[in-house]
Each structure stands twice: as structure tokens, then as C-alpha cells.
From TrEMBL:
<dbReference type="GO" id="GO:0009097">
    <property type="term" value="P:isoleucine biosynthetic process"/>
</dbReference>
<dbReference type="InterPro" id="IPR005785">
    <property type="entry name" value="B_amino_transI"/>
</dbReference>
<dbReference type="InterPro" id="IPR001544">
    <property type="entry name" value="Aminotrans_IV"/>
</dbReference>
<dbReference type="GO" id="GO:0052654">
    <property type="term" value="F:L-leucine-2-oxoglutarate transaminase activity"/>
</dbReference>
<dbReference type="GO" id="GO:0009098">
    <property type="term" value="P:L-leucine biosynthetic process"/>
</dbReference>
<keyword id="KW-0808">Transferase</keyword>
<dbReference type="GO" id="GO:0052655">
    <property type="term" value="F:L-valine-2-oxoglutarate transaminase activity"/>
</dbReference>
<dbReference type="GO" id="GO:0009099">
    <property type="term" value="P:L-valine biosynthetic process"/>
</dbReference>
<dbReference type="Pfam" id="PF01063">
    <property type="entry name" value="Aminotran_4"/>
</dbReference>
<dbReference type="GO" id="GO:0052656">
    <property type="term" value="F:L-isoleucine-2-oxoglutarate transaminase activity"/>
</dbReference>
<keyword id="KW-0032">Aminotransferase</keyword>
<dbReference type="InterPro" id="IPR050571">
    <property type="entry name" value="Class-IV_PLP-Dep_Aminotrnsfr"/>
</dbReference>
<dbReference type="InterPro" id="IPR036038">
    <property type="entry name" value="Aminotransferase-like"/>
</dbReference>
<comment type="similarity">
    <text>Belongs to the class-IV pyridoxal-phosphate-dependent aminotransferase family.</text>
</comment>
<protein>
    <recommendedName>
        <fullName>Branched-chain-amino-acid aminotransferase</fullName>
        <ecNumber>2.6.1.42</ecNumber>
    </recommendedName>
</protein>
<comment type="pathway">
    <text>Amino-acid biosynthesis; L-leucine biosynthesis; L-leucine from 3-methyl-2-oxobutanoate: step 4/4.</text>
</comment>
<keyword id="KW-0028">Amino-acid biosynthesis</keyword>
Length: 294
């Protein structure tokens, strides 16, 4: 992720990653109370562009707010800082990781001291580019009554690590998790879509992270005149679908070959997912129809 030349943003300064330090008494490390984002920048014909920076930084602000964290920067300021980090590191296609972590506090109360770090590095597609073998997880996504599932909170990701590890230990590439009521929710770090009879289905908001890529897929599907239903469905229904895919900032759009021992009957190239995948790549890498925010 970094070497002796890497520069990160930390609390108002651009500093070498190798010299940045954090206290071992910080509340984020002990109790998982911190918030973060996962963003991508692309080398477009118009120059380096952060895809949907506004949406990502507004989600970071939402995550901070529900966790009682006082984020000392506006979304716009964070966007400008991020462009500076990319420039200082000579990065064009990059994954960007803003992390808001807290100061020393060993009690379970809000922490006044807030640290903001923004790092970036080159990162290929998180789930690779081959069709995935997915396993239904024995772990469910956190109950929305036990936390804010729509916030990207550090501690929530222990659930994702358990699910990913279980899938990999059983010879699969990725996990698919249900929600606390047993309906299909999402992957450990990506949202899920399936296709059946020419219609796309995805879980409604409420039990899942409101993915920014999911929102982009909904936009693209609308532009392409595909019908999408945001509704609850079961693992059994997925096993009657024609095709399926995951989508997320790190993974982009990636097709799924099978769920458990069920192989999706449609060739990926013939699926709506493949059309969306191509259109997504064009949108992010060619800066196509992006909101001009800067
Ligand atoms: N679900 C979870 C649990 C995630 O961690 C992510 C990645 N942030 C996503 C879905 C996809 O969200 P996005 O498209 O905003 O990256």
C-alpha cells in the first residue's frame, strides 16, 4: 500500500506514510468506533477524476454524524484534499481510503479528539475479473436495530471478515449474506443484483449499505431501459435466477458464476450485468455524464 515515497494526509498536513503514527490508546482500535470510505479515482480524458466524490464524502459525514463523531471538514474540503493526495503521489487510477479515527478514550463514550487520514494507492479490482464462485454465508449482516447499517463504521467490518474467511476456507471466492430476517442482503463489501426473465432484482435499502455503485447501477439500468425491482427475495429465489453480479467501488461490477452448487444458466456475456459492467467502466473511466462538482 505504501513505500518510502508515499504521502498521506493526516490532520491538516501532507506527511510521509512511514512517519505517521497513532496512539495505541485510541478508541477506534479498541472498540471499532471510527468511520471510513472507499473511493476510486480514474484517469479520464479530462484528467484524473474522483468518481462521485460528493456522494462518498457525504456518506462519510453521515457515518460520522450517527456515530457522534464531529468531522472537522466539509465534503468539498475533503474532495480537494484528496485531489492533492493523488497529485503528491502521482496517482491516476487509484483507490482512496479516507479514515476518521478517534483519540484516546478507553470508555464507551463519544470522543472529542477526531483524526482524519486520507491514503491512496493503486489497486486492481478487489474481486478480480473472473466470474465468482459465491457461497451463502452462515453469517448474517448486522441487525439494523443493533447498529446503523447504512454507515461505514470500522467495527462493522468484522462481520465482513468472518464471512469472507468462511467463504474462502470452503473453496469459494466470495460470500453472500442474508439480513437478520433471512432475506438476501449483500456481499461483505459489495451489493448484490440478480437477473430473472429480463428484470433486475436487488435488496431494498434498510438492511444493507446504500452502495454508491448500486445507485450508479440503478441509474445505468434506467438509462438502458431495464426494469429493476428493489425488493426482498430469498436465497432460494436466487437459485432460480438467470444471472447475478456484485457491485461496489473496489470491485466495480463483477459477474457471479455460481451460488453454492447452483450454476447460473445464462452466459455472462448475454446478461444484463455484462451490459451494465461495460457501461459502468465507460462512465467511470471516461468521466461520462459525471456530476461536475469541482
Ligand atoms: N456493501 C458493503 C458492506 C460494502 O462495504 C460496500 C463497499 N463500500 C458496498 C456494499 C458497496 O458500496 P459502494 O458501491 O458505495 O462502494
Amino acid at each position: 500500500y505504501y513505500n518510502e515515497n508515499t504521502i498521506i494526509f493526516l490532520d491538516g498536513a501532507y506527511v510521509p506514510a512511514q512517519q505517521a503514527t497513532a496512539s495505541l490508546y485510541n478508541q477506534t482500535m479498541h472498540y471499532g468506533n471510527g468511520v471510513f470510505e472507499g473511493i476510486r479515482a480514474y484517469d479520464t480524458p479530462d484528467g484524473v477524476r474522483i468518481f462521485k466524490a460528493k456522494e462518498h464524502y457525504e456518506r462519510l459525514q453521515y457515518s460520522a454524524q450517527v456515530m457522534h463523531i464531529d468531522l472537522p471538514y466539509t465534503a468539498k474540503e475533503l474532495e480537494l484534499i484528496t485531489y492533492k493526495v493523488l497529485e503528491l503521489n502521482g496517482l491516476k487510477d487509484a483507490y482512496i481510503r479516507p479514515l476518521v479515527y478517534l483519540g484516546d478514550n478507553m470508555s464507551l463514550t463519544p470522543t472529542a479528539q477526531v483524526h482524519v487520514v486520507i491514503m491512496a494507492w493503486e489497486w486492481g479490482n478487489y474481486l478480480g475479473d473472473k466470474l465468482l464462485k459465491v457461497r451463502t454465508s452462515s453469517f448474517q449482516r448486522p441487525n439494523p436495530k443493533s447498529c446503523f447499517v447504512e454507515a461505514k463504521v470500522v467495527g462493522h467490518y468484522t462481520n465482513s471478515i468472518l464471512a469472507t474467511t468462511e467463504a474462502k476456507n470452503n473453496g469459494f471466492d466470495e460470500a453472500l449474506l442474508t439480513d437478520a430476517a433471512g432475506f438476501v442482503a449483500e456481499g461483505p463489501g459489495a451489493n448484490f443484483f440478480m437477473e430473472k426473465d429480463g428484470v433486475l432484482y436487488t435488496a431494498p435499502l434498510g438492511n444493507i449499505l446504500a452502495g454508491i455503485t448500486r445507485a450508479t447501477v440503478l441509474e445505468l439500468a434506467k438509462e438502458l431501459d431495464y426494469q429493476v425491482l428493489e425488493r426482498l427475495f430469498t436465497i432460494e429465489e436466487v437459485k432460480q435466477a438467470d444471472s447475478a453480479f456484485f457491485c461496489g467501488t473496489a470491485a466495480e461490477v463483477i459477474g457471479i458464476a455460481q451460488l453454492d452448487d447452483f450454476v447460473f444458466p445464462m452466459e455472462w456475456e448475454d446478461s444484463i450485468g455484462a451490459v451494465i459492467q461495460k457501461k459502468y467502466k465507460r462512465r467511470v473511466a471516461h468521466n461520462e455524464y459525471q456530476n461536475v462538482y469541482i
